[in-house]
């Protein structure tokens, strides 16, 4: 309310000029769409479809990027799924087309020439910003590409732009709605515009669901890939902790943060995971986790009959908390029947011994995360080449001074204030972390090992905390549309390094059901 008028005007003009400059190519692209694009149907096309079209000269990467830029120009004012587009996206597409023409190594497979959106907490050392949706980091300069971006560029992917998100990955305020940030506005669910898009990787899920990009990356600390994927009818894969690098990602806590693909199909998620998984010397956790990567990568596990012989666990309480006979209960009972029909052994009515302590575990998780966030965010901010803010305290001060620009003064910054009040990892935090480790060991791990389960099956993203605190992987697949058309997913979670089995299970379910459909943009 009391920010300087000059500063307000300056940042507003800067934001508008960035938006205008970065979306200018779309104005040129729209007129070309009907003539150049429709020879190949791009909407809902998979990576495999696109690569085949490249190979058969039915499509170029430039045409593909022009299509997505046109769709962003057309739909983003409604959906707010993209916060910024890459002014170099078309030149990257031209480079990919040239490499394909001269048959450069790797130019006819994987992510080469495929446009990808990155959640706006994933650093790119280029003309784009990395802000976590906050004006506090606008025009900051990162020291280098994030580890996953290095791998994407090496794979030949085109960085299309940055996806919107819940500001600061939903760790600024407990009162802010999912999908809202100062820079990006309020993200909208493309199926039912009034429905919760869920956070914090909401823009990544919204954009892929609405065909604003081929594939995207999100990040998860607790639920931020699985939840928006469930709510926006896409596939989201939250990897084992450290399987993908977190270096260059605006952090919450290195104990739980993970980077993973959000795509329209399980196959596309496997292709993206193949590109981004692996060792990065800037993230020590990737050294041990790299041992989980199977020889030959993850796409080999895209087996239509991947459910055959799998042991799948069902914990009714508290995950299947539907009213008996309700439409959702009926749908998920049918899905369990499908899993059995496809050859899986479904072990029902299992119990997690300490599941009743889930609420207290959530409190321990928050206690640890607040202190870890302060340490991690201060380290990230200090490493920036240039930045308006260099510490959490300075971010809080910026938000107080320029609350009009942030547009969320009413939501406050209670998480930030609680985090700033911490003083390292003390007795309270250590006790909380020990409780989390014991909860994992005596609960989810014991359930999985005693019953020799390949995966735990749950509706939606309710299992996210169990997976988050233990660093375990999970994958969401579209499962149902409610009466009003709102999507809901099914999640398969497993022990560390179980991505191959989870991909087999998820792909088998997807191929047996083929639930996903394009969005309806219902009001």
TrEMBL record:
Signal peptide range: 1-39
Top-level division of the source organism's lineage: Eukaryota
UniProt keywords, alphabetically: Signal
SUPFAM superfamilies registered for this protein in UniProt: Amidase signature (AS) enzymes (SSF75304)
Positions of the Amidase domain: 64-462
UniProt name for this protein: Amidase domain-containing protein
């Amino acid at each position: 309310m009391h920010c300087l008028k000059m500063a307000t005007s300056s940042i507003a003009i800067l934001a508008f000029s960035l938006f205008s400059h970065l979306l200018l190519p779309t104005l040129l692209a729209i007129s070309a769409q009907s003539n150049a694009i429709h020879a190949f149907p791009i909407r809902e096309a998979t990576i495999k479809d696109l690569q085949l079209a490249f190979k058969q000269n039915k499509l170029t990467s430039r045409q593909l990027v022009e299509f997505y830029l046109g769709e962003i120009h057309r739909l983003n004012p409604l959906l707010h799924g993209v916060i910024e587009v890459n002014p170099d996206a078309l030149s990257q597409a031209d480079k990919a087309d040239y490499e394909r023409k001269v048959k450069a190594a790797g130019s006819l497979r994987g992510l080469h020439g495929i446009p990808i959106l990155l959640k706006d907490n994933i650093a790119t050392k280029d003309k784009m910003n990395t802000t976590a949706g906050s004006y506090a980091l606008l025009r900051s300069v990162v020291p280098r590409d994030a580890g996953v971006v290095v791998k994407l560029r090496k794979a030949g992917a085109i960085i299309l732009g940055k996806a919107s998100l819940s500001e600061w990955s939903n760790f600024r305020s407990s009162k802010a709605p999912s999908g809202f940030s100062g820079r990006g506005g309020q993200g909208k669910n493309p199926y039912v515009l009034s429905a919760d898009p869920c956070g914090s990787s909401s823009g990544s899920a919204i954009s892929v669901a609405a065909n604003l990009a081929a594939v995207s990356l999100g990040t998860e600390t607790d639920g931020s890939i699985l939840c928006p994927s469930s709510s926006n009818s896409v596939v989201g894969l939250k990897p084992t902790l450290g399987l993908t690098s977190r270096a260059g990602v605006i952090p919450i806590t290195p104990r739980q943060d993970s980077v993973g693909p959000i795509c329209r199909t399980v196959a596309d998620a496997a292709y993206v995971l193949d590109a981004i998984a692996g060792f990065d010397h800037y993230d020590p956790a990737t050294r041990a986790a790299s041992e989980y990567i199977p020889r030959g990568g993850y796409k080999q596990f895209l087996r239509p009959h991947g459910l055959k012989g799998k042991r799948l666990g069902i914990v009714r309480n508290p995950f299947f908390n539907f009213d008996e006979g309700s439409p959702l209960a009926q749908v998920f009972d049918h899905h369990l029947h499908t899993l059995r029909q496809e050859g899986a052994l479904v072990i029902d009515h299992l119990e997690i011994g300490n599941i009743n302590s889930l609420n207290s575990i959530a409190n321990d998780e928050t206690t640890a995360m607040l202190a870890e966030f302060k340490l991690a965010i201060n380290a990230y901010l200090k490493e920036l080449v240039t930045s308006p803010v260099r510490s959490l305290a300075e971010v809080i001060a910026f938000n107080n001074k320029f609350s009009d620009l942030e547009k969320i003064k009413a939501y406050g910054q209670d998480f930030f204030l609680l985090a700033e009040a911490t003083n390292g990892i003390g007795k309270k935090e250590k006790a909380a972390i020990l409780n989390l480790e014991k909860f994992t060991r005596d609960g989810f791990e014991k359930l999985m090992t005693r019953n020799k389960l390949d995966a735990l099956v749950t509706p939606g993203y309710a299992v996210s905390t169990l997976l988050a605190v233990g660093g375990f992987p999970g994958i969401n697949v579209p499962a149902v549309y409610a009466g009003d058309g709102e999507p809901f997913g099914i999640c398969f979670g497993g022990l560390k390094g179980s991505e191959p089995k989870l991909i087999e299970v998820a792909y088998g379910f997807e191929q047996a059901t083929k639930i996903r459909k394009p969005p309806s943009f219902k009001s």
